[in-house]
Amino acid sequence: DQQVKQNSPSLSVQEGRISILNCDYTNSMFDYFLWYKKYPAEGPTFLISISSIKDKNEDGRFTVFLNKSAKHLSLHIVPSQPGDSAVYFCAASAEEGSGAGSYQLTFGKGTKLSVIP
Amino acid sequence: DAGVTQSPTHLIKTRGQQVTLRCSPISGHKSVSWYQQVLGQGPQFIFQYYEKEERGRGNFPDRFSARQFPNYSSELNVNALLLGDSALYLCASSFTGELDEQYFGPGTRLTVT
Fold first, then answer.
1. Fewest beta carbons within 10 Å, which of A58, B2, B43, B44?
2. What are phi and psi of B110, to 5 degrees?
3. What is the C-alpha separation between B90 and B86, in angstroms, rounded?
């Protein structure tokens, strides 16, 4: 049972245009969401995060939107650059218990973004 | 500053064997998490350790075990290897393991034949 779903395995975008990557989740206990970028032969690299108390977070060219009622988040990249070509993972975390609970990440399957020059 | 390091980079084992993977966190980080990434899937949580104590365990069989040392480095052990254990094993470190960003290492590619 996939709790974090990225339904688009791949996405192609022209350089300079907007890239929109989508993510849906089913677990209502998730309260913190992250996006990671992964190049081949490297580990995932943190991009941007958002807490469930917000509906938008911006960092330079990257913006994440959270729609809690729809259990949906999206990552916008504007403008897209060829160096953004990578696999993007959506991840979610739920605070378990109090104090020293485990803050494990649950990942989606990823979306491969190709930015065409 | 050095990032998260993992060794070995690649490993080939035979079914039934045992394997130990190693991870050194970023200096100052006290939490280490382990993830398994099977081809075509996202990383799946295996363990989290903080200050040498197991803080969380994912849905993996008892063949998987881990520990964290006083210098905060960590080992992941897998016994009685199965073909399905073939995957990229990722280690991530963070300062507290709580809701902050985890920094991932490049992973160890394990192939079980």
1. B2
2. -105, 125
3. 13
Q: Which residues in chain B are contacts of A43 at CB distance < 8 A?
A: 4, 90, 92, 104-107
Strand ranges for chain A from DSSP E: 4-5, 10-14, 19-25, 32-38, 45-51, 56-59, 62-67, 72-77, 86-93, 105-107, 111-116
Cβ count near A8 (within 10 Å): 15
pLDDT band at B99 (very low <50, low <70, confident <90, very high): low
Neighbours of A58 (CB within 10 A): 12
Query: Poorest-confidence range of A23-37, A96-110, B58-72?
Result: A96-110
Say how far apart CA A72 and CA B23 lie, in whole Å.
Answer: 34
Tell me which H or E stretch contains A84. Answer: none
Give me B95's structure tokens: 């300062």
B9 touching chain A per CB within 8 A: no
| Cis? peptide before A79, omega within 30° of 0 | yes
Is the pLDDT at A92 greater than 80? The verdict is: yes
